[in-house]
């Protein structure tokens, strides 16, 4: 019985509310925001200038979980992440709307959910006596709080786990390292075939089409990323879970959603009625329709699970279901209580992980170079969200994901692999795109001097040393205004035994910043004749030797 | 006014080139198994001394026209409706003042003259050493060409799929290399290098500018550089070389970066003879014309004349 029937304003609100096509509006919003997200993803690349007009990293800056974990891990307030306060405030007002209307992964899961007909674990079915729900679903829903607590505590104690469990890291990283390169390859392949073999009459049509695709849909260059299968598998697993239950990830696992849910418990926007009507005449009740399984065993709506999709509102044949702003009184739901046992278990896991991970982590290998601006490894590991934005934006495809070279906790963090790409001297895109500041944005003059590593020559491979052949392609490309690679003209023998005069390169360590272009451009097939090593990993003997070659500094 | 030795300098070359292009088309369509062969031709007999123009002035756009005047403007070099490639040095992520790339105003002026001479298409490109998006933008050349707002003039990134292997029959150091299709198919290939320091070659001028239209691992060209450059230059023979010496890079080339290494000269050096252009441009660095081994080898192997006494130098 609607108690507000006597109030004319409120009943006017109710009738206006009932007329708005909420589901249609929600779907439109989801579509528009998904397209925006994909557009931002496409924009996350170099355009030739040092400015990024837009990037997909915005999704991290508005996510409260990212803010919380980054603040806990780094023990400082990070100004970059303040937009999350707005999202959190809106959640207190509107409930878990982010999950239903905004989240790109949520939207994609909804699409997948429509396409996947079978469910292994059916949506909550209400037997005829109107009481018991599937207990499995309820137990599982506690898992997301377990993960949330574990992540937060682990972050506080020094291991940032968000990269593996944040929906945005999972989605963006898989898109960057696997989906996007695959898309570029598979779309380009037929056009390349045509350009090789088809007559001009055909290519006259296909090439302009390809040019348009390259300019608007495809990535600028064919990227390649190591270990892409792993990130892709994680994303596929999230989608595969739709086979088990609709929005499985969102209901049972997503820690960002869990945090939104905790805030949503206090939201002002509440569903009226707060439970399934006893006299429900509909074919499927609200509880059965609910894609989030948000109704508990008493058929009360749990605000921490409701993502405001409005399906129950649109689907109510009597137009009775709706949402109102109500200051007082919870919707008639049982107060949520994460069991003490569960909390202790998740806290224990959160504490144990840093202990285990830190104990097995080893020294960084000498050739593991971090992006420019990264100073201290522990701080970097705390802040890095493993989101893959830097990998995406790197102008030369130099940044690659790490597997376990940096220890267990280094998984998916970025490293510079000079043989694959080099750090462009005037480029600071990675610093601009990093949502947490793990890669800081340095002023250009500082970036020009920041030492990522030092170039060391391998005399067994480097042509002027090993074969008496002239080269110094490395010196040619060194970008420093006063080059960090110089050469000494030396008389030696070539491979045929002839006496030759060759220019043999060496590094001026006081200038080298380890950008790696010398390694990228080295013309030897296979391993380069030069490599970039971490500053502290260059043998002292090498430093002494090169110092002797410098004329005078 | 046409000088006799400038009358259709491409006759002998164009016959050979037409045959080559036919072979290229056949190979691309899969009809031929092997890539087409480009024969190394000795330099066509000159009826008079090759002309070299040295122009000085501060208005760079006007300076290009001034430098081309004694050569008959662009008319001897561009045929009506022809495909022109203007090949600047656009290899580096450097600003015009840093003297690592050809000056954008020089490129713009050259493109404008080609269009005015009736070119059907003028293509500006370079296979840059730094990221092409940065190099094309920082050099100012892409913006300069686009500012002409002429659909016939384009400055676009090079396409990896358009490199084709070319066999060099009488090549001394290399027998085959990949070349960019648009450069091979040009009716007029205009060489627009900047004059600057280079660690290995000592200077990089017109002969070395061909590096921007070849594929493959270019560092391999550094072994036996002089002979390899001559081999490459025999394939894509420029009808005109205009060396941008408006400002030159004295040290730390070819990438530069320090304005202290730049010397402003307000000079352009133009000639149909690429070797003569390089020989003269070398003197701008207070070096003798035969100082570079590449220039000496090119002269020896018949690509042009290095001895400045055998060249008609016109100063404007």
Q: Can you offer a commentary on this structure?
A:
The complex is a heterodimer of chains A (553) and B (316). Chain A has helices at residues 8-19, 22-43, 58-61, 64-74, 83-94, 97-102, 104-115, 135-141, 143-157, 162-165, 167-197, 200-216, 228-240, 248-253, 255-264, 286-289, 311-315, 340-360, 377-383, 389-393, 429-433, 444-447, 463-466, 473-477, 517-521, 540-549, and strands spanning 269-272, 322-325, 399-401, 414-416, 454-457, 485-493, 499-507, 530-533. Chain A is mainly alpha-helical and 553 residues long. In chain A, the strands form 4 sheets. Chain A has a two-stranded antiparallel sheet with strand order 1-2. In chain A, helix 9 (143-157) crosses helix 18 (340-360). Chain B is of the alpha/beta class. Chain B is built from 9 helices and 13 strands. Chain B has helices spanning 11-28, 60-68, 104-116, 132-138, 141-146, 181-184, 225-233, 274-283, 293-300, and strands at 37-38, 51-56, 83-88, 121-124, 153-155, 163-168, 176-180, 188-192, 194-198, 202-204, 240-249, 262-271, 312-315. In chain B, strands 2, 3, 4, 5, 8, 9, 10, 11, 12 and 13 form a 10-stranded mixed beta sheet that branches. A 3-stranded mixed beta sheet of chain B has the order 1-6-7. The model of chain B is unreliable at 1-12 and 39-46 (pLDDT under 50).
């Amino acid at each position: 019985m609607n108690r507000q029937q006597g109030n004319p304003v409120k009943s006017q609100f109710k009738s206006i509310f009932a007329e708005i096509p909420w589901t249609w509006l929600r779907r439109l919003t989801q579509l528009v925001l998904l397209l925006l997200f994909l557009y931002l993803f496409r924009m996350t690349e170099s355009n030739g200038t040092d400015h990024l007009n837009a990037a997909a990293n915005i999704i991290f800056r508005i996510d409260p979980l990212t803010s919380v974990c980054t603040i806990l891990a780094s023990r400082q307030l990070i100004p970059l992440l303040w937009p999350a306060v707005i999202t959190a405030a809106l959640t207190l007002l509107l409930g878990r709307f982010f999950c239903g209307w905004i989240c790109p992964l949520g939207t994609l899961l909804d699409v997948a959910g429509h396409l996947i007909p079978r469910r292994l674990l059916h949506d909550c079915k209400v037997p005829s006596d109107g009481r018991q729900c599937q207990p499995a679903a309820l137990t599982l829903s506690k898992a997301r709080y377990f993960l949330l607590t574990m992540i937060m505590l682990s972050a506080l104690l020094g291991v940032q786990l968000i990269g593996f469990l944040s929906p945005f890291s999972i989605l963006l990283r898989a898109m960057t390292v696997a989906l996007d390169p695959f898309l570029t390859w598979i779309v380009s392949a037929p056009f390349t075939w045509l350009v090789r073999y088809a007559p001009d009459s055909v290519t006259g049509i296909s090439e302009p089409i390809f040019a348009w695709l390259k300019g608007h849909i495809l990535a600028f260059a064919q990227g390649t990323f190591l270990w892409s299968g792993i990130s892709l598998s994680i994303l596929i697993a999230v989608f595969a879970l739709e086979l088990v239950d609709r929005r499985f990830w969102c209901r049972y696992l997503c820690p960002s959603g869990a945090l939104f849910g905790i805030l949503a418990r206090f939201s002002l926007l509440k569903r009226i009625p707060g439970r399934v009507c006893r006299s429900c005449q509909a074919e499927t009740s609200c509880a059965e329709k609910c894609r989030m399984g948000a109704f508990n065993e008493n058929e009360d709506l749990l605000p921490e699970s409701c993502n405001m999709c409005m399906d129950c509102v649109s689907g109510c044949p009597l137009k009775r279901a709706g949402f109102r702003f109500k200051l007082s009184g919870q919707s008639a739901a049982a107060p949520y209580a994460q069991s003490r046992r569960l909390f202790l278990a998740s806290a224990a896991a959160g504490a144990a992980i840093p202990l285990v991970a830190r104990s097995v982590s080893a020294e960084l290998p000498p050739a593991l170079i971090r992006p420019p601006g990264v100073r201290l490894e522990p701080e970097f590991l705390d802040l890095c969200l493993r989101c893959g934005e830097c990998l995406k934006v790197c102008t030369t495809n130099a940044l690659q994901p790490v597997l376990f070279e940096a220890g267990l906790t280094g998984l998916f963090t970025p490293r510079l692999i000079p043989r694959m790409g080099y750090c462009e001297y005037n480029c600071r895109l990675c610093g601009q795109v990093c949502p947490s500041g793990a890669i800081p944005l340095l002023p250009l003059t500082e970036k020009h001097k920041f030492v990522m590593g030092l170039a060391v020559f391998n005399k067994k491979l480097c042509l002027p040393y090993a074969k008496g052949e002239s080269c110094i392609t490395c010196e040619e490309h060194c970008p420093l205004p006063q080059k960090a690679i110089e050469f000494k003209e030396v008389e030696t023998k070539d491979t045929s035994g002839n006496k030759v005069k060759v220019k043999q390169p060496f590094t001026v360590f006081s200038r080298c910043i380890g950008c790696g272009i010398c390694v990228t451009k080295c013309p030897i097939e296979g391993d380069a004749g030069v490599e970039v090593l971490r500053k502290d990993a260059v043998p002292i003997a090498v430093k002494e030797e090169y110092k002797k070659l410098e004329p005078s500094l | 006014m046409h000088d006799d030795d400038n009358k259709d300098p491409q006759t002998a070359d164009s016959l050979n080139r037409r045959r080559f292009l036919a072979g290229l088309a056949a190979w691309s369509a899969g009809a031929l198994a092997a890539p087409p062969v480009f024969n190394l031709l000795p330099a066509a007999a000159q009826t008079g001394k090759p002309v070299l123009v040295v122009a000085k002035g501060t208005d760079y756009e006007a300076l290009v026209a001034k430098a081309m005047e004694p050569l008959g403007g662009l008319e001897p070099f561009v045929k009506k409706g022809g495909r022109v490639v203007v090949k600047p040095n656009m290899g580096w992520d450097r600003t015009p003042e840093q003297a690592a790339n050809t000056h954008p105003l020089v490129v713009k002026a050259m493109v404008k003259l080609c269009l005015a001479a009736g070119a059907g298409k003028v293509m500006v490109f370079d296979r840059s050493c730094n990221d092409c998006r940065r190099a094309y933008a920082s050099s100012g050349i892409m913006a300069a060409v686009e500012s002409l707002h002429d659909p016939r003039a384009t400055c676009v990134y090079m396409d990896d799929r358009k490199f084709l292997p070319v066999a060099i029959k009488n090549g001394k150091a290399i027998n085959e290399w990949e070349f960019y299709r648009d450069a091979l198919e040009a009716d007029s290939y205009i060489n627009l290098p900047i004059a600057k320091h280079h660690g290995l070659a000592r200077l990089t001028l017109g002969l070395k500018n061909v590096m921007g239209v070849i594929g493959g691992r270019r560092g391999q060209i550094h072994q036996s550089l002089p002979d390899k450059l001559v081999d490459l230059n025999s394939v894509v023979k420029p009808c005109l070389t205009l060396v941008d010496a408006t400002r030159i890079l004295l040290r730390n080339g070819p990438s530069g970066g320090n304005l202290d290494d730049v010397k402003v000269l307000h000079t352009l050096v133009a000639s149909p003879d690429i070797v003569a252009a390089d020989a003269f441009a070398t003197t701008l660095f207070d070096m003798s014309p035969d100082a570079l081994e590449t220039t000496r080898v090119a002269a020896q192997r018949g690509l042009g004349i290095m001895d400045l006494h055998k060249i008609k130098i016109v100063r404007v």
